[in-house]
Write a structure and sequence with these properties.
- By secondary structure, this protein is of the alpha+beta class.
- The protein folds into two domains: about 5-70 and about 135-215, Phosphorylase Kinase, domain 1; about 225-440, Transferase(Phosphotransferase), domain 1.
- Helix content is about 35%, strand content about 15%.
- It has helices at about 5, 10-15, 25-30, 75-85, 90-100, 120, 125-130, 180-190, 225-230, 235-255, 305, 315-330, 340-355, 355-365, 370-375, 400-410, 420-425, 430-440, and strands at about 45-50, 55, 105, 145-150, 155-160, 165-175, 200-205, 215, 255, 265-270, 275, 285, 365-370.
- A five-stranded antiparallel beta sheet has the order 4-5-6-8-7. The chain has a two-stranded antiparallel sheet with strand order 1-2.
- The longest helix is centred in the middle third of the chain and has 20 residues, at about 235-255.
- It starts with a helix and ends with a helix.
- Residues about 1-90 have low confidence and may be disordered.
Amino acid sequence: MGSNFLSVILLFIAVASPNSGLPLRTQHQLLCLPVVKDITTPHLTSCYYSSNVSLSCFPSSSSSAWTTLDGFAQQEEEEVASLNPAASVEEEAVNLAHKIGKSIRRPGAMSKARVYADVNVIRPKDYWDYESLTVQWGDQEDYEVVRKVGRGKYSEVFEGINTTNNEPCVIKILKPVKKKKIKREIKILQNLCGGPNIIKLLDIVRDQQSKTPSLIFEYVNNTDFKVLYPTLTDYDIRYYIYEILKALDYCHSQGIMHRDVKPHNVMIDHEQRKLRLIDWGLAEFYHPGKEYNVRVASRYFKGPELLVDLQDYDYSLDMWSLGCMFAGMIFRKEPFFYGHDNYDQLVKIAKVLGTDELNAYLNKYRLELDPHLEALVGRHSRKPWSKFINSDNQHLVSPEALDFLDKLLRYDHQERQTAREAMAHPYFNQVRAAEASRSCTQ
């Protein structure tokens, strides 16, 4: 049965396109993919999301539903439509957006990470030179597909089983994309393997005929964040944000930016209080002075640096994204900054953080917005965080929570707390105390 697993992938890609709309069973029949029956595994309710794959919740046996939310910058219009079909932008604003050009960066005022800036300078080239990676392929016969759980432009995601130990796993089958991008994701996952709260890459396999690669990941019994977050207590939020910070500080210390932090990419097994940061498809190695693509991260979690075309960004991008995620959790407002497009996203941020602060940021890094975008942003005064407190969320909001949030959601990426600094914030006093107590009893 295992031999059928990847040998039909080319046919799968050709026939079961992302827009085919075929029932899963029909797709299996069309493609002759093996469906494992009567296996004894937990109800698989994990949500695994790839930068190339729509978010999909692994349904339990009692449900066949799964959620899609595209995280690609290239497909943002579809994302908004799927989230809110009734959402519309005024025609004048839409026409204006078509005229907007990139921001202009005058010479000088280059930016460099405050921490871990030289990690990849010090380490040998083979640590970060993913293009030279030689992949060690595992045996595809060790894995069988249980069911399809997600699809996207570049990948297909399956619930699977490792037949050598009967353990559940997640199988991400990659459609033809640049080898460079695949190697980058693999190299980063390998470099981070064993790090705190980092999703574990178990194996890499490929079909011998089609050469189609697949990534095999550990399984997490996740609860969809839209279901889980409304049930979290004040302490739960502190605990899980602290766990994310562990993962971020680790990857940053290894010279790697995640570049797509958001709820969809944080798997939580609430019963086990286990968290994993997933989707390293957009992650990249940090090199001081290098200019990176700003078309990364999902719109609602994009840092201002991306929205104003500042390309020499760094690890602090992840801290902004975490701040957006944290704000959504404590204020029960998801997403916290809800822009209709990238330009409107900057407008939504400016309406909270103010335009005086935005202009100070632009001046510091010698950036000039396109006049049309400047007009679109307008002028706004800064809103105090207390304006977002209401009867539904007041039990989650404390002075230390607002202070922590304020240290993350800063226009100036160099002013944001680093992951390591954030872990020392008073907001996490209880969490650190509980962790120290557990360590003493072990």
